[in-house]
Write a structure and sequence with these properties.
- By secondary structure, the chain is an alpha+beta fold.
- 55% of the residues lie in helices and 17% in strands.
- α1 packs parallel to α3 and α6 packs across α7.
């Protein structure tokens, strides 16, 4: 199948993928731009996952101060090289994550950081609420797993839906950046300051 050079150019601009990858994705999708972009994104995320265990010891500190001056965030976002730390896409990612933290108030970076006693306390609260609703015991455990996963998605940064694009989690946003920039990127830590009003 002959590939339209305009479609090829558009796909490259949409995805930042290489020429040959774009050509293969357009061939695979029979020239459908949206499908081709999805194919590239899926392949990129697979590659990104492979890069996620590489050491990320460079990076930058990002800040966000809300316009009223009563809310601020400091975020340490790491990558593998100083070159990527100065890249415009990396800088934009850091600013967007800092702004997201200000808006969504996560308590932890990832699920593994949530203390077991906090999860257990939430589990008991939810178990009691389900009992009060009259749910049978054999159903409660199944429902509880979903409720605990939802709780983690509310308090853990990487699990939260990205405020600018809710169909993506922050974790998926970072994986997309890894696939575009070709390096591991990770959130080391953050702190959110809010003045009591």
């Amino acid at each position: 199948m002959a590939i339209d050079s305009e479609k090829l150019k558009t796909l490259r601009e949409m995805t930042s993928a290489g020429m040959m990858d774009c050509k293969k994705a357009l061939e695979e999708s029979n020239g459908d731009l949206e499908k081709a972009a999805d194919i590239l994104r899926e392949k990129g995320i697979v590659k990104a996952v492979k890069k996620m265990d590489r050491d990320a010891s460079e990076g930058s500190i990002f800040s966000y101060i809300h316009h009223n001056g009563k809310l601020g965030v400091l975020l340490e976002l790491n990558c593998e090289t100083d070159f990527v730390a100065r890249n415009e896409k990396f800088m934009e990612l850091g600013k967007n994550i800092a702004m997201h933290i200000a808006a969504s108030n996560p308590l932890y970076v990832m699920k593994e950081q949530v203390p077991a006693e906090e999860i257990e306390k939430e589990r008991e609260v939810q178990r009691q609420a389900l009992k009060d609703e009259g749910k049978p015991d054999n159903v409660i455990d199944k429902i509880l797993e979903g409720k605990i996963a939802k709780y983690a998605s509310e308090i853990c940064l990487l699990e939260q839906a990205y405020v600018k694009e809710p169909k993506l989690t922050i974790g998926e946003l970072i994986k997309e950046a890894i696939s575009q920039l070709g390096e591991n990127i990770s959130v080391a830590k953050f702190i959110r300051y809010a003045m009591k009003s």
